[in-house]
Design a protein that fits this description.
about 0% helix; mainly beta; 10 strands; about 110 residues
Length: about 110
């Protein structure tokens, strides 16, 4: 089982887009962990939540992802029983340095 860190390096407050070092699609295996890391000077001060998009399958264990301690980073564990080839479309709810709220829609893809 591996950890997949996703680094947020920039943001666009007009579109809500985040620049992620995985280009917005992380490839995982069942039981893996995903950790979202907010980069310095990315324009993001916090994530406020994660939502599974309507019609998509939640690839995470129940109650994941969650905030990691006192940091602004979040982490989730891929359900060890998830079917290979499953793709989750999800939304990251995030706040910019001016206090504006935004939504970005990346993917998590379970390897086949």
């Amino acid at each position: 089982m591996a950890n997949h860190p996703i680094r947020i390096t920039a943001s666009d407050t007009t579109t809500g887009d985040l620049t992620m070092d995985d280009n917005g699609n992380t490839f995982v295996d069942p039981g893996d962990t995903v950790t979202w890391l907010i980069g310095r000077n990315s324009g993001v001060i916090a994530f406020t939540g994660f939502l599974v998009k309507t019609g998509s399958t939640n690839v995470f264990d129940a109650c994941d992802p969650v905030s990691v301690g006192n940091s602004s980073n979040w982490q989730g564990t891929i359900n060890p029983s998830i079917a290979k080839g499953t793709v989750e479309d999800y939304s990251i709810l995030w706040t910019d340095t001016s206090g504006g709220n935004h939504t970005y829609d990346p993917k998590i893809s379970v390897n086949t």
